[in-house]
Amino acid sequence: MSIPEREYKAQPGRRRLRMLFNITFRDSPSSFKAVQFGNGLKTAPHEYTADAHPSRSSLLVASRQNTHSPSINKFMDENNATQHCSKPHRTHKPRDGKCEPADPANTVTDRLNALLQSSGPGYILSLCANQSYMLQAPLNFAAPQQEISTLGYPTGDERAILVVNGPVADGQGHTTAVNGVCLTCSGVKLRNVQIDGTRRGAPTTEGGGNIEMGGENSDQLIEYVRSYDPRSWSCLHIAEGSLNCNNATVQNNDIGPCGSDMFQQWADGISMSCRNSVVRNNMIQGATDGGIVVFGSPGTQIYNNTIWQTLLGGINMVDYEPFSGDFTGTIVTNNTILGGFATDSQEPSDVKGNNFQGAIIKIGIAIGPRTWFGDKFGNNISHSGVVKDNQFGGALSYAIAITSAHNFTVENNILVGNTSFIGARGPNCSETDSVPAPAPFIVDSDTTEDIFLQPGFQTIADGDALTCVLPPNGGDYWPFGTNPSNTSHPTSAPTPEGGTAPGRTAGIAVGVIVGVLTVGLAVWFIRKWALKRAHSKYLYGATSNLDK
C-alpha cells in the first residue's frame, strides 16, 4: 500500500541548522528516502536512505547518495558518529539479560572464540550463571579492554564454570581455560567466573596454567575468579612478556586446591611475573607448591592475602629468573599464612593433636634462591625486597627462611594463635646439606648481606633446599585451631554432554511456557493501541532526532 508523502520541518538544533525534508516512504514500510531541498548553505538536493521501522525512535541514516554539500556531509558524519547511524553499531556491553549459553557443548569453544576474535576492543563476553562451558581449547582474548565474565557479576557458586575438557595424551594436551597474552591484550579483564582444570589426581600435563595472562601488556584485571585443580603447574599465571608486562591487578579471587602433594606433582596458586602489579585480598587454599610465587616482579605489592593448608611455601621470593633476582620495590605485607591444624578430637587437656593428612607449610615466606633450589643457581641472589607485618599460625617448619639475599628489609612479622614448628630431614635432602631444626625465623649468615632484620632471627650455617623436610608421620604435633574456608567449593566434573543440568533445563522450559502465556494475554489487549500509536510516534521521533 502506498503511503502518502508528508513534509516535515526540522527544528533548529545545537548546530543552528535548519533543514526541510520531503520524506517519501517506499513500497516497503521498512525503509524510506529523505530528500533535502535546502539547508541555508546550498540548494542542491541530497538523498539519504534510512530504516523506517515503526518501533525505532531515531533516524538511522544508512547511506549518503549525494555529496554536493561539504557542510551537510560533515554534519551527517558527526551525527553518525554520535548516533551510530551510518552502520550497525556493535555494543561493548552485554544486552540486558543476555548471555552466551553453554549449549550446544560441541560448538561452545569455537562460538566463544569467534565472538572474541570478531568483536573488537571493549567487547564483553557475558557467560550464563549456573552453566558449565566444556572447553576443548583456551578462550583467547583478542583485543584491548575485552572482558570475560558471568552475567550479573555473581561471586559465589553460581558463577559460570569454564571447564578444561580438551584431550590429553602422553603428558601433553589441553591445560589452559583462558589465555590473555596476545600482543593486543592490554586492559583485558577476567571477572566473576570459575575455572575447573579437571586434573582429578592425574599426573601433571605439560603446558600453561588454568589461566594465562600478562605478556607484553599492561593494566589487566583478574578478580572474583575461582580457579582450582589445574592440569599443569599453576592455577593462575601472570607472565612477564619481554620483561615489559606492567600493572596487572589480581584481587578478590579464591584459588585452590592446586596440584598434588606427591613429589614433583605440585602446582602454584598465583604465579606473578609482572612489574608494578598488585596481588591483594585473595584466598589461597592447598596450592601445593607456592601459594603466591613472586618472580621478581619489581614494584609489585602483595598484601592482605590469606594462604593455608599443605604447601611447600606460602609466599616465595626465590626465583632468579626472569628478572635476575630483582625485587626492587616489591613489598609483601599484611598477609596471613596458616599451616595445618590438628584434625582429631580435642580433649580438655589437649594442647596439640594429630593431622591425618600431614598438612603443613614448610616455609611461610621463603627469600633467596638457595632456600628452594640449593646450589642450582650458584652465587645468584634475590635483592632489594621488603617483607613486613605478615602473620603466621598453625604448623610450619619455618615461618620465614632467608638465604642468598642482599638488601632485604624484614620487620614486624609475627606469630598468631596456636603455632608449632615441626619437620625433619626427608629422603630428598642432600647428604651434604645439614638441615636446620624447625624454627620461626632463620637466616643463613654466610650467603646474606646488607639485610635489615627484626629481632628473633636464628642464624644457621646452611639454608640450602629447605623444602626437603617432611612432617612427622602422625602423632600429636599439630596445634588445635581452624583454617578459613573458601567462598566456594570445588564441584564435581560436569558431564561432557552439555553445560546445563536436566533439572535446570526443565525448570527453564516451564518458566518460558508460563511467561509466554502471560505475555500473550497482555499483548492481545494492547496490540491495536500499539499499532495505532507506533507509526505516528516513529515519525515524531525521526524528525525530532535531527536537531540533536
UniProtKB/TrEMBL annotation:
Where in this chain does the record put each Right handed beta helix domain?
Answer: 244-358
| Pfam families, sorted | Beta_helix
Location of the region described as Disordered in the Swiss-Prot/TrEMBL record: 83-104, 481-502
Membrane-spanning residues:
506-526
- Name the UniProt record assigns to this protein: Right handed beta helix domain-containing protein
Which keywords label this protein?
Membrane, Transmembrane, Transmembrane helix
Question: Among its keywords, does the record have DNA-binding?
Answer: no
| SMART domains in the record | PbH1
Q: Enumerate the NCBIfam families for this protein.
A: para_beta_helix
Task: Mark out the compositionally biased spans (Polar residues).
Answer: 482-494
